[in-house]
């Protein structure tokens, strides 16, 4: 098993969150889409995704407060490179040099690890938390934001700042614990407004927390749940990573790098055409064969494999295999952590459809949004398929059939189910989705939609304001498959 590649995939996973400044097109709020205020009796809670860039802080609220994220320092990297070469030269051992590289990687991600019980190694790291309506946090709202904050700002303009709540949390930790905190926010919103139900829009990893909430607290306090490109039904990136199902090849690397850093797309294309990129991928594979165990033990386990939040994105059917792959000979050492991971598996990830079926039966309205046509992290088997740049379309949609990026579905895939669920570009067949009539797709839309005033945001308003369960046939302007541009302007996909 190529455990080294698992480590590399872990490192590359965070790149989409840190390379937004290299976007090919400038994102601007479409000013023509004015948000008209309306009255509502139902508070809205936005459960955000992984706040990698700025959500965690050391010593929050003190004069020593500082971000607990990756602090990349070119000088520090240079020092470690020198140390690596010096170590190899003095010891004549590649193994010793690899250990220095592992040391650097662990130091780079030193803020994140959890201990053997799944608790943060650093007690002084906390997440931002906004327990009351956003009217109490005027500095939070920003129409110029490009993440969940822009969606929260749009919702506040639509329904009033007192009706909107923003749930941020420590994404590393046990989603069951975060669900308890979410329950407190739900109760606060109900108490604030003397109502009986709230709406939830869960984004990205927020799908794991929302599923945990429904598993633990039921559905009686929920009116509408919208999965906004979330991992409610799991994600392939973590599933493949923690099962060792990794794959580097020139095609996926070229597509990803060209999308993320278009300024060097010409260079990566030349590297692919000349075979240099293929040689590099083969070198990584060969290197992995020799040093996989060492790097796995010294890098992946001390960092990402200890995070319950990451494990919550595991597809249920693959959890037990992954548990054995990562911790097969370390069960006693990680007994506390494994107890938490097992609890999420048996309570949530193995019951995902049962939970959402229960919600629908109880009268909760459900809508699933899954986007596609953006390349994924080029280091795991499923990365070749359709995605939104961060999460794969197939699990995001609850089981859609998707094509390899840049191609169309096979004849066999197209023949499955009813043709009405096949996208016009023949890249998606929604027939196999858990809820094909409640699932919408945005081509070329990014991960987590909701730019301030955008048409996609107005679509979310429409879903929230539906009096009965909405379907892909409810509104002509919002069919199952829609084309989006960088500003989230929508049109039926033709």
Q: Give the strand order, joined by hyphens, for the main sheet.
A: 5-1-6-7-8-11-12-13
How large is the share of residues in beta strands? 5-15%
> How many separate structural domains?
1
Uncertain stretches of 5 or more adjacent residues: 1-31
Topology, number of strands? 13
Mean pLDDT comes to 90
Question: How many H/I helical runs?
Answer: 18
The biggest beta sheet, please?
A: 8 strands, mixed
Which bin fits the share of residues in helices?
25-40%
Distance between the termini: 43 Å
Shape: globular
Structure class: alpha/beta
How large is the radius of gyration? 22 Å
List the helices and strands and how they pair.
Elements lengths: L2 H11 L1 H4 L25 E4 L8 E3 L7 E2 L6 H18 L2 H15 L16 E3 L20 H12 L4 E4 L7 H19 L4 E6 L2 H12 L4 E7 L7 H6 L8 H11 L4 H9 L2 H25 L7 H4 L7 H9 L7 H13 L4 H10 L3 E8 L20 H4 L4 E2 L8 H4 L13 E2 L9 E5 L11 H11 L15 E4 L5 E3 L2
Parallel strand pairs: 1-5, 1-6, 6-7, 7-8, 8-11, 11-12
Antiparallel strand pairs: 2-3, 2-4, 9-10, 12-13
């Amino acid at each position: 098993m190529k455990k080294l590649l698992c480590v590399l995939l872990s490192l590359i996973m965070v790149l989409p969150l840190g390379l937004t400044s290299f976007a090919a097109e400038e994102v601007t709020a479409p000013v023509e889409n004015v948000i008209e205020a309306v009255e509502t009796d139902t508070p809205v809670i936005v459960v955000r995704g992984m706040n990698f860039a700025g959500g965690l802080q050391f010593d929050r609220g003190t004069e020593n407060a500082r971000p607990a994220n990756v602090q990349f320092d070119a000088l520090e990297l240079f020092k470690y490179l020198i140390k690596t070469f010096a170590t190899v030269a003095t010891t004549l051992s590649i193994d010793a040099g690899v250990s220095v590289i592992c040391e650097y990687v662990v130091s780079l991600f030193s803020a994140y690890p959890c201990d053997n019980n799944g608790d943060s190694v650093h007690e002084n790291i906390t997440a931002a938390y906004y327990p009351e309506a956003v009217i109490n946090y005027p500095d939070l709202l920003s129409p110029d934001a490009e993440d969940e904050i822009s969606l929260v700002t749009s919702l506040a303009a639509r329904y009033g700042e007192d009706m909107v709540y923003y749930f941020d949390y420590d994404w590393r930790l046990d989603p069951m614990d975060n669900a308890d905190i979410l329950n407190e926010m739900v109760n606060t919103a109900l108490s604030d407004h003397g109502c009986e139900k709230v709406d939830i829009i869960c984004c990205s990893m927020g799908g794991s927390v929302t599923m945990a909430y429904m598993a633990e607290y039921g559905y009686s306090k929920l009116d509408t749940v919208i999965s906004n490109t979330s991992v409610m039904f799991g994600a392939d990136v973590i599933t493949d990573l923690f099962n060792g199902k990794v794959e580097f090849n020139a095609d996926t690397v070229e597509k990803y790098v060209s999308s993320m850093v278009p300024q060097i797309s010409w260079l990566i294309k030349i590297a692919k055409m000349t075979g240099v990129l293929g040689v590099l991928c083969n070198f990584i594979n060969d290197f992995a064969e020799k040093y996989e165990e060492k790097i796995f033990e010294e890098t992946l386990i001390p960092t990402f494999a200890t995070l319950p939040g990451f494990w919550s994105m595991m597809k249920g059917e693959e959890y037990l295999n992954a548990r054995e792959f990562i911790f097969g000979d370390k069960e006693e050492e990680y007994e506390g952590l494994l107890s938490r991971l097992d609890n999420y598996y048996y309570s949530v990830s193995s019951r995902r459809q049962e939970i959402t079926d229960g919600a629908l039966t109880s009268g909760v309205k459900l809508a699933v949004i899954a986007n596609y046509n953006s390349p994924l992290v080029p280091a795991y088997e499923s990365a070749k398929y359709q995605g939104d740049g961060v999460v794969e379309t197939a699990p995001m949609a609850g089981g859609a059939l998707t094509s390899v990026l840049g191609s169309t579905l096979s004849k066999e895939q197209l023949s499955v189910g009813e043709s009405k669920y096949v996208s016009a570009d023949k890249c998606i067949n929604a027939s196999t989705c858990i809820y094909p009539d409640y699932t919408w797709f945005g081509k070329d839309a990014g991960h987590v939609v909701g730019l301030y005033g955008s048409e996609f945001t107005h679509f979310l308003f429409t879903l929230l304001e539906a009096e009965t369960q909405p379907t892909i046939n409810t509104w002509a302007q919002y069919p199952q498959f829609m084309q989006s541009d960088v500003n989230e302007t929508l049109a039926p996909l033709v």
